[in-house]
Specification:
heterodimer; A: alpha/beta; Rossmann fold; 7-stranded mixed beta sheet; 15 helices; B: Rossmann fold; 37% helix; 16% strand
Chain lengths: 396, 284
């Protein structure tokens, strides 16, 4: 069994095609190159603003690497094709935005239930509905978490710049492979279309993970078992004679459907949760700036983390003890660290391009005696340094 | 009794024994379809290790997954063909088969059906058309005959049924045939042909659902439904000479198309070759 993109030939091709160095490119392109460096060789998608350049870059680059670009008839078909391809051993990705992400939710749940590694990039745009199709937003924080039905865990990462998007996309693939789970990349329309300097590294600098394959026949016969105790079953790929049965219905360790026994459902869904909970070290990531001695903590994510850092730096110049906390993996939320920081500060400001979403997660981890306030802006224009600084001064 | 049947049935080797007995109702046409498919696989001597069977949701989706012993992917409602598309790109040398119902493939999944036919991807679709939503309790389907009664068309169906085979043929499939469960040998031959065609192939099987459809349309017994199929079947060649009003309520059976067109995954790989050649990326 082989995971595509793993072959030594691929390293030669990447070295030949992409010289390390600085390039001037869009955030969307950075996501696409990140995926290519991570070993993604199958992309199925449906065009939607502001994510389309990811598809365009993949359509142009993947054939050079022997990879496949499929333009499907809709978003539902795109994520479906990805799941099919993932079970044949591909690292797979799709990119979408707003309404497309909504359409993908059912099969995102299918990927959670069948433990199929895939990366879904949601380039967030304004909503509800068609909203402002060409504008950025951060309104899908909870859609990523709770968009599909049932009790399910999800891992979502969120880059804060074009350069970050390159590395976070790679990290998303590594998490997906290590935990045999779908991973959402919550990108946004602002960074997606911002052109900036992005360094493409040497392929050897990139650490790449591959999914666990069955070590023997016995493991292959239990595609949903837990032989290693880490909650992550080895994945027997299609086409190798294991007669694997994969279903989105509640299934036993051998893959066969059993929707009648409460214990089977309980065991399966709790293990899928436990898999994410007990492997926090695989995905937990956050950034801190001046957080240790901060009295006022700004919490921000994605595109807004940049003006937030600017505001904190300016506040420090003014003698205000401000700090910044940026979850890079936004789901599961880095609650433990948030709790520690929340104990030391007087006020927490949560800056985001929505009417208040991450603030609800933050609220769960700070005490009532802390002043908690949202810095929110919608309309498709990102928050500015000045706007966030004004709020910091307001609580200083 | 059941055990004896399993052990005497020569094609039992193709079934996932731990999943038996099937959940299909007595008299369901699904058994005939499973039998025909197993016969076709056996007749062509296809190693089940070279098969991936994909299905959606509903009674007919269960025919092959979990019951057929191969790699099986039991997907979300309507999306089987889209899932199968990803599988086929990953495993171009395997036979990728979709077995599912009319509600699954032609209603909610109609878009994927049309576009897979248009792309002409090398997938064989066996579409079991029982003219009703069986598993959800007998609601009206886009294939329910005009005038028929269902739980959601209790007075009569005022919508016209979709002619699946003609639609898929028009969309560009390489091979399209329609039979009923009363035409078992023709059905087996068509499935064999479909499995061998390089391109998108569809075998539509008009199948009886005595429990949900027959019961409400004066055909409670499976045999009555089979007799209805036989009495109203018209071969394609004859149908061509008949007027539309004469064909109302008839089952046109036979091969609709059998042609060669460039196949999707082959073209995809050809394109990759050309691109790699163009950019001088072929291995030294």
């Amino acid at each position: 069994m082989i995971i595509r993109g793993d072959e030594p030939e691929q390293v030669r091709l990447i070295k030949k095609l992409y010289k390390p160095g600085n390039y001037f490119m869009q955030g969307n392109e950075a996501v696409a190159y990140g995926a290519i460096f991570a070993g993604c060789r199958f992309y199925a998608g449906y065009p939607i603003t502001p994510s389309s350049e990811i598809a365009e870059t993949m359509a142009r680059e993947l054939p050079k690497l022997g990879g496949y670009y499929l333009q499907m008839e809709d978003e539902i078909g795109s994520i479906a094709a990805m799941v099919g391809a993932s079970w044949t051993g591909f690292k797979v990705m799709t990119a979408t935005a707003g309404p497309g992400f909504s359409l993908m939710q059912e099969n995102l749940g299918y990927a959670v239930m069948t433990e199929t590694p895939l990366v879904l990039v949601d380039v967030q745009r304004s909503g509800p509905s068609t909203g402002q199709a060409t504008k950025g937003a951060q309104g899908d924080f909870f859609q990523a978490r709770w968009g599909t039905h049932g009790d399910h865990p999800i891992v979502a990462v969120s880059p804060t710049s074009g350069q970050d998007a390159f590395w976070e996309t790679i990290r998303a693939f590594n998490i997906a492979e290590k935990l045999r789970t779908p991973v959402v990349v919550l990108f946004d329309g602002v960074l997606a279309h911002t052109r900036e300097q992005i360094r493409i590294p040497d392929v050897e600098e990139v650490e790449i993970a591959y999914r666990k394959l069955p070590a023997n026949e016995e493991e292959a016969r239990l595609p949903f078992g837990d032989p290693h105790g880490d909650g992550v079953p080895p994945m027997p790929l299609f086409g190798h004679g294991y007669f694997t049965h994969v279903t989105g219905s509640t299934h036993k360790e051998n893959g066969l459907r059993d929707v009648y026994t409460p214990e089977v459902h309980d065991r399966l869904v709790r293990r899928i949760h436990r898999k994410i909970e007990q492997n926090r070290d695989v995905y937990e990531k956050y950034e801190e700036h001046f957080a240790d001695d901060a009295e006022i903590l700004v919490v921000s994510w994605g595109v807004t983390a940049r003006p937030a850092l600017g505001a904190v730096l300016k506040a420090r110049e003014e003698g205000i003890k401000a700090g910044l906390f940026v979850p890079k993996t936004v789901h599961p939320f880095p609650g433990e660290r948030m709790k520690q920081l929340g104990k030391k500060v007087r006020a927490v400001l949560v800056a985001e391009m929505n009417l208040g979403q991450m603030i609800l997660e933050v609220q769960r981890f700070v005490n009532d005696d802390v002043l908690l306030k949202g810095v929110n802006k919608i309309g498709g224009v990102p928050l500015t340094v000045e706007e966030i600084l004004r709020e910091i001064r307001g609580v200083a | 009794m059941a055990k004896e049947i399993y052990s005497k049935y020569p094609l039992i080797k193709y079934l996932r024994k731990e999943a038996l007995p099937t959940a299909l109702c007595p008299g369901c046409g699904g058994g005939t379809v499973l039998n025909a498919f197993a016969n076709a696989v056996d007749g062509l001597k296809i190693d089940p290790k070279d098969l991936v069977v994909v299905s959606g949701i509903g009674c007919s989706a269960w025919i092959a997954s979990p019951y057929f012993l191969a790699d099986t992917l039991h997907t979300t409602h309507g999306r089987a063909i889209a899932f199968a598309t990803g599988v086929k790109v990953g495993l171009p040398d395997k036979k990728v088969v979709v077995i599912s119902g009319d509600g699954d493939l032609a209603s909610i999944g109609g878009n994927h059906l049309l576009h897979a036919a248009r792309r002409n991807i090398d997938i064989t679709v066996i579409l079991v058309n029982n003219m009703i939503y069986g598993m959800t309790g007998g609601q009206v389907a886009p294939t329910t005959p005009f005038g028929a009664k269902t739980t959601t068309s209790p007075y009569r169906n005022i919508e016209h049924p979709l002619n699946i085979s003609e639609t898929v043929a028009a969309a560009g499939a390489s091979y399209v045939a329609r039979w009923t469960t009363a035409h078992v040998y023709q059905l087996i031959e068509s499935i064999k042909k479909a499995l061998q065609v390089k391109g998108f192939s569809l075998v539509e099987v008009v199948s009886q659902c005595p429990v949900q459809f027959g019961r409400r349309n004066r055909m409670k017994e499976p045999a009555e439904m089979l007799r209805w199929f036989l009495k109203n079947s018209v071969p394609v060649s004859k149908a061509k000479k008949m007027k539309p009003e004469e064909l109302e309520g008839k089952f046109v059976i036979g091969e609709f198309v059998n042609r060669e067109r460039p196949e999707f995954v082959t073209e995809l790989n050809k394109l990759i070759d050309e691109v790699q050649e163009h950019f001088g990326l072929k291995g030294e």
